Amino acid sequence: MKTDELVAMLASSVEAVPLHSSERRHAIALACGLPVALALMVVFIGVRPDITEAVALPMFWMKLAFPAVLLAGGAFAAIRLSRPGGRMGVTAVALAAPVLAIWLLAAVTLAGAAPAEYGLLIFGQTWAACPFMIALLAVPLFVALIWAMQGLAPTRPALAGAVAGLVAGAGGALVYAPHCPEMAAPFLGAWYVLGMAIPAIAGALLGPRLLRW
Amino acid sequence: MSVTEARLRDCFLRGLAGESTAYHAFLQELSVHLRAFLRRRLSRLPDEVEDLVQETLLAVHNQRHTYDAGQPLTAWVHAIARYKLVDLLRRRAGRDALNDPLDDDIDLLAGSDTEAADARRDLAKLLARLPDKQRLPIMHMKLQGLSVAETARATGLSESAVKVGVHRGLKALAIMIRGGP
Questions:
Q1: Closest approach of chain B CAs to the CA of A15, in angstroms?
Q2: Which residue has the higher pLDDT, A110 or B101?
Q3: Which residue of B78, B124, B181 is in closest CB contact with A1?
Q4: What is the ipTM of this complex?
């Protein structure tokens, strides 16, 4: 087939194509992945028993806001990176800022605490389970986001995969937070960040394989 | 914004809205720029140029829904061409063929080359290998120019199956070109 014939073939009877497909597909992925993760959390591990008292504490909301901000910033980054030539741009700041903020808060907390309290502030009671649970709860959203990206055209598949993993990790942390009894910033800065980093690294490794087009 | 960018973008956007003639003009002019762009970068692999022009055109078509109207069209097309070029070089593991830096997206529209060599790969033969529910809608709509409704009547498929068949068939063609999933 000659190139002119290919051009004629591609151009004949074209259908109108809706724009904003990247936004739409990512919105669908979030709308499908997050409720599934939430349901898994409620069914298998449940919300913390003292949830009615916890909602009165500012730190409880901080614990939700931290992954929520990352999730939002990451979703915009994912939308951009799913288009050919897309760059993170300002969304990189939206990803770095919440992590830096939680680390700053952790440093302030530790600076005001006695050295004997460090262990409890950093490790809490549940450090061994936390990153694992967050990474596990990230799976539904990760699958949904990879589906979204496979219908688009990321030209930097490793970075796009990493961002998909990070968004999924942030979603996992968001739905894990109402279960999690920990309230200290150093704990969040260590184990929540690790829990979100696991799917991000997995995404960076899987991206080039899953996102070819 | 250059005159060429403005003209191409206008044709492309009208094509996205469903205007076949504008879209045809866009693809025609784009193929000329792509040929020059890729020929400069594949000077050691001249036989690959036309195949890659076709592969890139197919990718532009298959991914046209990913264009963000806020971005320059040149940058979007360049990213696709570059992605397909790198993919080809990776497939051939012939990095030596690269004699130009790849990240100069300004000059995609600078050159033009209307001399199409023959493609070595015959897309018509690849098309023939598609399953019927993809091949028939493509044959009727894209090669004979029938409408969705006419194609649906001719093939016995539903109208949505015709649209899906064309879409999936052209994607499957791109996957066959790059050698499997």
A1: 5
A2: A110
A3: B124
A4: 0.90
